[in-house]
Amino acid sequence: MSNHYETVKLHKEGRVARLQLNRPKSLNALDAGLMKDLLGALKEVKADPEVSILVLTGEGKGFSSGGDIKSMLMLSGEEQFSGIMDTISELVMTLYSMPKVVVTGIHGAAAGLGFSLALASDYILCEEDSKLAMNFIGIGLIPDGGSHFLLQERLGTHKAKRLIWNGKVFEGQEALMKGLVDEALPSGKLEDGIERYIKQCLAAPTRAMLKTKEVYVSLNKERLQHALDLEKEGQWLMRQTGDHQEGVRAFVEKRRPEFKGN
């Protein structure tokens, strides 16, 4: 067990590393502290030649509720915003290009940026009563964390666009049918599914698996980076809109937003 981090837990055993988001009181909302710890832990795993499988999960009642909206509201200007977006870009690129088989296990909520992180992995398992949502549209924003690219890879452009515009919440089986996840398990059986997939990978020629991953990363890395750059630019512009301000007010006041298209 690594004790270097305040908001993530990292445990290595043999060829498997387990990394757990650990801000359970906020449903593992991603603030600057959690993102910094997560990035540090991912780099530690990446540099470990003994590890060939990384399992990413969340502590408490859910995987991650997404970006910490309260902390995002405290960003004072474009420089602070730019710094956070650069951290998100590095986080997603590190996870996507990780020279390990990356497995994400979802229980409870995986929303917004939390869902983006899951999409950057190689294999996603969720429980049937999980709630998965790319719900930036609800506060007048666009997805970030490379989700335009990651959803396009899984769904194709047209279906990805519809999903982003709808902001719909998917439960596990529907997410599986849509191709957003690779397994949907009964409630409480997530760990069983993860263990089964770990054993499957450990019994396989993982060096060959990872060479295939390396080829695809090489083919797609520039496209992902371009998407991250466009998302950073677009997200800043969306933060200036009246619809975003209304979306945030409605979120704080717990009511339905009244968007004007401005």
UniProtKB/TrEMBL annotation:
The keyword Lyase applies. SUPFAM superfamilies: ClpP/crotonase. It comes from the Bacteria. Keywords: Lyase. InterPro entries: ClpP/crotonase-like_dom_sf, Enoyl-CoA_hydra/iso, Enoyl-CoA_hydra_C. Its EC number is 4.2.1.17. GO terms for molecular function: enoyl-CoA hydratase activity. Belongs to the enoyl-CoA hydratase/isomerase family. This is Enoyl-CoA hydratase. It comes from Rossellomorea oryzaecorticis.
